[in-house]
Structures are given as C-alpha cells and as structure tokens.
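Write out the 3D structure for:
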Amino acid sequence: MAEYCRDCSIRYLGPETAKYAGGLCKRGETTTMLCEGCGDIVDVDHEGRRVEKGVAMNRALPDRDRWIGWVALAWILAAIAVIGGIAAISMAGFIEVTRPNSFGRMETVTEPNVFIWSVAIGQAVSATLLAALFSMINSIYKNSCDQLKSTAYAEVREGGDAASEQRSGENGVRLTNVSSQSPLEKVLYAGCLITRLNDETVESVDDLGARIIKGPNKIEFQSPAGESDTKWIHLKPGQPLLVQGELAKIP
C-alpha cells in the first residue's frame, strides 16, 4: 500500500474521501483511488486506514470475505457426501434375501439394505445442512461488515458536516479569476469559495499568501454549487498565486 502519490508525494485522504478511479492496484483489485493533490492514481489502503496530515489513523475494518473459503470447503464436502451416498447405494444398497414363498418353496428376493440407505442419506443430509449453516453464518457476517463499514463512513461524513456547520457565517475568499499559470488552477476555478487554508481562516488574497507553508497545503473550499471539498497541493511561501478574489460570507 502506497501512502504517497507517485508524482506529487502528497499523502492522500483515505477510502472515506478519496475518489474512485478505474485501474488495478498492486494487489490486483479494482479499487485504486485518485490522489487528492494531483489527481494521479495511488494505491488503496486495503485495511481501511485513513491517512491525513501525515498521521495514519487506524480505522481497520473486518474482512467481509474472511470465511468464504470455509463456506466453499463445506459445500465441497457436502457434494462429496452426496456423491458418496449415491455410490454406496448403487453398490450395496440392495441385498438378496432367501425366503419361502406362498407355495413353501425357497426363493431369492432383492430388498433394500436399510443400513446402507440410512448411512448414505444421513451423511448427505447432515453435510448439506452443515454447509447451509456455514453459508447462513457467513451471510450474517457479511451483512454485519457492511453495516459497520457504512457506520464508519457515516461518522466521517458527519464529522465533516459538523465542521462545515461550525464555519458557517465566517468569512472566506470567493475567487473571481484564476490565471491559467496559477499553481491553484488544477484544483480551483472562478466561483470557488476558499474557507480555510491549512486550517486557518482567510479573508483576502493576501491572507492566502500569508498562510502558505512549504510542502503540502490543505485547501478547504466550496464549489459554486455549495459543495464542500478539500484538496492538497504543493506550494512554497512567497510563490505567486495569480488569483483574484473578494471577501464573502460562508453559507
């Protein structure tokens, strides 16, 4: 698992916020994500960790496919038991018994071998019920994992919504023009409302320049449609941003 993007070396936000992208990761799973800094594909943290601001927060989620191998084995054994039962019945399921007929003469008749039939049917039914029980338990386990995953992601979203509510009513910088030469041009455009830069409030373009640090910078903003988003981008103190903006209230 790569915690850093191959190109911009910015730590990506984990599965809760990163955008899914087509492609295969090193483990061969089609769950690669886009780097929040430059948009390049990075490897997924398959254990569910969320990496932000250089700190890995363990949000390990259980593997929903953990018992699928045992379920498959149980059904294979059930199939073998059924096939074995059929074979046993075909080979020894009937026996010839000598008994007198109504005329007093001895004759040979074929009768079911009760013991063989009982054993064959018993093992087939038992193995099938055991496999069905494994499948039911595995299904319950998967549903529990899905619910836990949904709850974990909901907590992250609620945390982000709460932070947005706390910033409501504060001032931000609404961009009126973003030059094509601006280092922010890849992530921001005219109409975006910058609410915070590196977790600090901003009220002017000058504030943007003053809040810049060397290395990854965290930019929180709202799109013209009012959707909140966060991007990371490499900047240097004193680097011209080549943007124009005005003071605006955060809705």
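Residues 1-59, 159-166 have pLDDT under 50 and may be disordered.
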